[in-house]
Design a protein that fits this description.
Elements (H helix, E strand, L loop, with lengths): L30 H16 L12 E2 L1 H11 L23 E8 L5 H9 L5 E2 L4 E2 L4 H6 L6 E9 L11 E9 L22 E3 L2 E3 L1 H4 L1
Parallel strand pairs: 1-5
Antiparallel strand pairs: 2-6, 3-4, 5-6, 7-8
Helix pairs in contact: 1-3
Main location: membrane
Pfam families: CAP (PF00188)
Family: Belongs to the CRISP family.
């Protein structure tokens, strides 16, 4: 499974519509937070260029969110060492992970996920070449990842970020995690969806898989 870290804080020029405080960050059961995390992932997945022939629709997984929350509490800018363990999640033998750390006043789930997606500018789909860091982007649009769970933690400091305080530490976990192949197969949208799937906004959906 491919993992990647960027040792920089994400700075945005647009102030989020809701500014969080240390005690007001959403928990993993917050419906608006869940909807935002799922919505922005599926938006980027549905808009990939070149188009994907079998990009799975992504839905929330409470177990992945619990994993993300437990690891975020450590306030470390480093990957969970158990991602490869088949004991980490009841349904996935590998779990993917993206991490964002930045100013508490600038945090929103959508801006953090957008920062991961912005790595697309450094990624060449045809050659699989990446000029900087692209692992966060490829995980966001990894075709076979169909579950996501995210969590955010307030940290006074985060290990790996010197001289920065009062931070939001945001983690998303994915099932199944990505590997070293291309993130998806190009082709007409939904042209190669699994059997019994339907097409919704260029994504393959299945009631049994998505519940």
């Amino acid at each position: 499974m491919q993992v990647a870290l960027v040792m920089t804080a994400w700075l945005v020029s647009v102030v989020p519509s809701h500014e969080y405080g240390a005690n007001s960050l959403p928990d993993i059961k917050n419906e608006d937070f869940i909807k935002d995390c799922v919505r922005i992932h599926n938006k980027f997945r549905s808009e990939v260029k070149p188009t994907a022939s079998a990009m799975l629709y992504m839905t929330w997984d409470p177990a992945l969110a619990l994993i993300a929350k437990a690891w975020a509490r450590n306030c470390k800018f480093a990957h969970n060492g158990q991602l490869h363990s088949n004991r980490l999640h009841p349904n996935f033998s590998s779990v993917g992970e993206n991490i964002w750390t930045g100013s508490l006043s600038l945090f929103s789930a959508s801006s953090a996920i957008t920062s991961w997606h912005s790595e697309v500018q450094d990624y060449d789909f045809e050659t699989q070449r990446c000029t900087k860091v692209c692992g966060h982007y490829t995980q966001v649009v990894w075709a076979n990842s169909y579950k996501v769970g995210c969590a955010v933690q307030h940290c006074h400091t985060v290990e790996g970020f010197r001289h920065l305080t009062n931070l939001a530490h945001f983690i998303c976990n994915y099932g199944p995690g990505q590997s070293y192949q291309r993130p998806y197969r190009k082709g007409s949208t939904c042209s190669a969806c699994p059997r019994d799937d339907k097409c919704l906004d260029n994504l393959c959906t299945n009631l049994k898989r998505d519940k």
